[in-house]
Amino acid sequence: MALVLDAGGISGLIQQYEALGPFVASLVTNFLATFGDKGQLAVITLATIYDTKRVFAGAITAFAIWNVIEVSVGTAVLGVLPAGVTPIFTGGLFVLVGLWTCFQAYSLYTSTEGRAGATDAFEGILPDGVYERIQGSSAFVVAFVAIAVAEFGDKTQLLTINLAATFPNAPLAVIAGAWLGLAIRTGIDAFIGQAAEQFLPMALIQAAGAAVFVAVGLFQWGLLAGSTVVVIAAAAVAFAVGGAIYRRVTEPQAN
User: Membrane-spanning residues where (predicted)?
Assistant: First the structure.
């Protein structure tokens, strides 16, 4: 069948697993199709900076809401905005967060503080009233906002819309399968981020994360190729790991 919003090989992916039924097909395709996308990069980066459990909870909540909207509304989700507005908005938020995270990394590096606040990346970007209200549960809110914005108009969204069109009589199965696939992937991503936090200094993590966020934003604007974003992400990881190794080697050992 012709899919309502085909992109990036979505039709072939759905056809490959369609025989497994709506739940399994939705689970498998959402788990496999989105590796390397900006949502995954956001989860890994946020999990290195903020509380892992809250990042996971915020991310899967955002995914759940989007899954319901995608299946319920279908193509109208992407039709409410003029063409080209979505990547401009998404890219702008990622660039702003990246630049602010870079500033936070510098501040942390030059201070004696060991950890930045969970909402520091959004301070100065969100209105003062909103910023004040998200204190306390901020890690959850930051993750929720980041993933909700990152996934808007992304391949994950197009995939779920097309799965709903492929299985029009099983909307709940599509929602449950898509959400579970994304939840499993998000858990893996959060674990990777948490593991990195145990080894890497926070200032280096934030600097690397800033580079990734800005690169993703520029990719959304069409200024960078996807392969370039991957190279920048790899270079950012190498920078953070190299900095951590150098710091361990050069710092005096405690007696």
Answer: 55-81, 87-109, 130-150, 170-192, 199-219, 225-246
